[in-house]
Amino acid sequence: MDYFSAFAISASGMSVEKMRLDVTALNLANVHSTRGASGQLYQPLTVISTAKPGAFAAAMTQAGNASLGAQVTEVRATLTPPRLTYEPSHPDADAKGFVAYPAINPVNEMITMMTATRAYEANVAALNAARVMAMKALDIGGN
Amino acid sequence: MSGHEVTKALLLKALDAATLRHQAIASNIANANSVNYRPLRVNFEEQLGFARQALAQPGGTLTAADVAGVRARLEQEPAPRAGTAAVMIDMEMVKLSQNTLQYQALLKGVSHHGSLVTTAINEGRK
Amino acid sequence: MNVDPVGFLPPLTEVAGLQAADAGNNVGTSDFASWLAKEIGSVNDKITGSDQLLQKLATGQVDNLHQVMIALDEAKMSFQMLVQVRNKLLEAYQDVIRMSV
Question: Residue A143 falls within a domain, yes or no?
């Protein structure tokens, strides 16, 4: 596997984790949003990421530009029932005086953020390791 | 041009391309927060499309004609969609790493390539 | 009556085997020139092979960076070896020429 594709794999992992972090930040920012852009309640989003559709066995044995890595397949709105609080004076209160807030659990979001950050750092470490290996390969044959 | 000179000319052009690419990446990083900035990229490897196919076969080499018209040039990427960032700094850093590695590999290649002629000139004496 | 053509005879493999064995045993001086030519040819092949790998590096389609570096190093070493062989041969020749008759 050449170093171009090693870099591309780590780069794809980094962009997936960055997207996850962005979505988490968006969810946390909208903890108290009662309405989304379309007028409906804001639904918390999750990132579904899968491996890129490269044939692993074939890519490992033959050299060349194998498209491996991770990709974001979907940013999906979770269909969790909203959190209802009793605020009759709120402009968005329904007939009974309840306001529907999105069911975002800040603890879950913080955990997702931490794992995304660590995964991002791990991808950067993998990229640096690939770079160091390639630089050492340049030393073959003396100076 | 002999095969030796073709390789030397191609290596020098690739070094030019790597230098230009570094400037493009540096400009992208510097303009990460600029309004209406269109990222720059370098067009070089794409010009060698046919040549790469010739090289892919065993024993294939490039000719002077393949290499003659190739020149690295800067291009602007299309303007980003409204609301999205034009420059992703971490991707630019990855490209920077990769480009630096390519530049150093090419430099090593040039020096090894020239050392053959040096050996012939020195007749093996150090 | 069926007259088979001469082509049905099996090829004379035993004779070919004898010739191969004879060629292997023959390390006389008359073969040194062809051996040297073969070695020069193989060094040339290594150099052109490393040239091709360098062109692949320049066009951005290396499979293995270390493969390129190893091939470059091998080509350089075999060329240096060839130059040393040539130097030694010249030295021996000059020694022989300087011999007083």
Answer: no
Dihedral sign (CA A90, A95, A99, A101): negative
Tokens at residue A25, please? Answer: 């930040």
Neighbouring C-alpha atoms within 13 Å toward the C-beta of B106: 26
Residues of B in contact with A3 (CB under 8 A): 98, 101
Of residues B42, B38, B39, the one with CA closest to residue B20: B42
Do B62 and C55 make contact, defined as CB atoms within 8 angstroms? yes
User: Measured at the alpha carbon of residue B93, what is the angle toward residues B88 and B97, in degrees to the nearest 5?
Assistant: 150
| Residue indicated by tokens 């050492």 | A136
Structure confidence by residue, pLDDT tens digits, A41-66? 888 999 999 988 775 655 555 544 45
B98 SS3 class: helix
Number of structural domains chain B divides into: 1
Give me the residues paired with residue B43 across strands: B73
Read off the tokens for A2: 């050449």
B4-47 residue pLDDT tens: 888 888 899 999 999 999 999 999 999 888 888 889 999 988 88
- Calpha distance B122→A134 (Å, rounded): 31
Identify the helix (H) or strand (E) that includes residue A16: helix A3-29
Q: Is the pLDDT at B51 greater than 80, yes or no?
A: no
Cα→Cα distances A18→A118, B37, B91, Å: 11, 22, 11
The ipTM value here is: 0.82
C44 at interface of B, judged by CB pairs closer than 8 A: no
Q: Would A142 be classed as within a structural domain? A: no
Rounded distance between C-alpha atoms, residue A47 and residue A52, angstroms: 15
Task: List all chains that touch chain B, counting a touch as 3 or more CB pairs closer than 8 Å.
Answer: A, C
For residue A70, tell me if it sits in a domain: yes
Tell me the residue range of the domain where A110 lies: 3-137
The structural domain count of chain A equals 1
Tokens at residue B81, please? 């969609």
SS3 annotation, B29-45? HHCCCCCCCCCEEEECH
